[in-house]
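Page 37, continued from 36.
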């Protein structure tokens, strides 16, 4: 058999295995486009998740005439946060299944278009129910896109070292999402009157939501250049692409992986919703801040958010640097979880109640120690499931772990404030966050001991 025939046979019999010497070559133009599309999607995923806390108050005021902290205001705040999360969780499970059934690229493209179009529609909402419905669609798109993108990238770059590096570095672009949300709101507030009216008004929150339409524009342009996953295509062409099943990821061979990763996703993303995202509410109660003018207080809050977003980016980049140098997934997870178990409760029990300067350092460290393991889990999960269950397994871990369980940490943090010591609401919240952080990272550390190491560098067929 000549060399060309043998290579052709290999491509039909099994997913391609890139030679070790290929690691040194640079990315092709198409591969750069692939990475760019994925990175843009990850950045806007986080943008869409973080933009709502920024625009919620002015949107509720404009569409419902609701006064801040009124009972009706708080009811709509709860709906706007938790209804989209539940919708994302339920339909994200379906999205993982469809990723395995109809292909990674197709779901990736349609999910990005879904949250882009729904973001456009949300910017033109005229009632609160409309805004809620469009936000649910946006989070559904985000939930499906992340699962499809991870499976797609993992299977496109088959060389183990390159695959891990690309998964980690493209995900680090997600750290730009928070910076983009903050910057978009600043620009919208500053220049709203100079922009074309939306629905007959120049309300800044509408422009910030409209910004979520942007990823659809380059996607439409590069769509013809995006290949389907070769592993998925090869399995289908051989007739070996079994029908995906959510039940199968809980059968004995995969049950431990599914449960452990779901628990760890819930803990890590619970830290984000129950601790990190609660931090801006603590700033006005800090000594030296509560005596400032309202404008100065808002500036302090904004600066704390900005430092936190830098920490998000730093945590993901640190993971990208370490992941090709440390092979043990358990060890890599504990490099973030163990320090986090000590540092984060200290940040919220002391820095968040005593000093703005200390809180700057603390929120940066907290964001690093949360986002490192978050990125690690996303590079880990594709290595544990076969082709026909890769999207389904990711969908269960992400959507049950993050949307359905992780977001409940925000409820726990706010409920615990009623029994916390201290003289101000901000202090109660800080102590509550410290307890939730200690609890969640203790669970994550225990779960890490049950984390299976991948059986090899290659993705399972």
């Amino acid at each position: 058999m000549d060399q060309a025939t043998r290579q052709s046979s290999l491509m039909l019999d099994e997913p391609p295995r890139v030679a070790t010497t290929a690691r040194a070559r640079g990315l092709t133009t198409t591969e750069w486009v692939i990475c760019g599309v994925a990175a843009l999607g990850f950045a806007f995923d986080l943008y869409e998740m973080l933009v709502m806390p920024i625009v919620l108050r002015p949107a509720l005021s404009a569409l419902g005439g609701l006064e801040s902290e009124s009972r009706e205001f708080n009811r709509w705040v709860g709906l706007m946060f938790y209804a989209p999360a539940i919708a994302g969780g339920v339909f994200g499970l379906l999205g993982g299944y469809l990723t395995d059934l109809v292909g990674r690229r197709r779901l990736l493209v349609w999910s990005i278009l879904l949250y882009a179009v729904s973001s456009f529609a949300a910017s033109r909402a005229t009632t609160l129910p409309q805004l809620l419905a469009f936000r649910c669609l946006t989070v559904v798109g985000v939930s499906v896109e992340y699962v499809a993108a991870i499976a797609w990238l993992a299977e496109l770059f088959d060389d183990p070292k390159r695959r891990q590096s690309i998964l980690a570095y493209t995900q680090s672009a997600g750290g730009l999402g928070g910076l983009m949300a903050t910057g978009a709101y600043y620009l919208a507030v500053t220049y709203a009157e100079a922009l074309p009216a939306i629905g007959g008004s120049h309300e800044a929150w509408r422009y910030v939501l409209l910004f979520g339409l942007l990823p659809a524009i380059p996607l439409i342009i590069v769509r013809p250049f995006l290949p389907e996953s070769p592993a998925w295509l090869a399995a289908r062409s051989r007739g070996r692409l079994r029908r995906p099943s959510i039940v199968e990821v809980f059968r004995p061979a995969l049950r431990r992986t599914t449960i452990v990763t779901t628990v760890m996703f819930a803990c890590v993303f619970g830290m984000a919703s129950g601790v990190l995202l609660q931090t801006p509410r603590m700033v006005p109660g800090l000594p030296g801040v509560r005596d400032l003018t309202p404008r100065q207080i808002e500036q302090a809050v904004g600066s704390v958010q900005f430092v936190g977003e830098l920490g998000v980016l730093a945590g993901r980049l640190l993971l990208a640097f370490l992941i090709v140098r440390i092979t043990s997934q358990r060890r890599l997870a504990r490099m973030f979880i163990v320090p986090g178990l000590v540092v984060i409760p200290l940040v919220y029990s002391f820095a968040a109640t005593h000093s703005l300067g200390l809180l700057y350092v603390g929120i940066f460290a907290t964001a690093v120690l949360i986002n490192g393991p978050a990125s690690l889990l996303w590079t880990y999960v594709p290595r544990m499931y076969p082709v026909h269950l890769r999207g389904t397994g990711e969908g269960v871990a992400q959507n049950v772990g993050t949307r359905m369980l992780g977001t409940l940490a925000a409820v726990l943090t706010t409920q615990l404030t009623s029994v916390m010591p201290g003289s101000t609401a901000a202090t109660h919240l800080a102590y509550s966050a410290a307890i939730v952080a200690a609890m969640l990272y203790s669970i994550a550390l225990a779960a890490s001991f049950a984390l299976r190491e991948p059986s090899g560098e290659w993705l399972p067929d």
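The domain at 29-228 is CATH 1.20.1250.20 (Growth Hormone; Chain: A;). Flag for discussion at group meeting. The chain has a mean pLDDT of 87.
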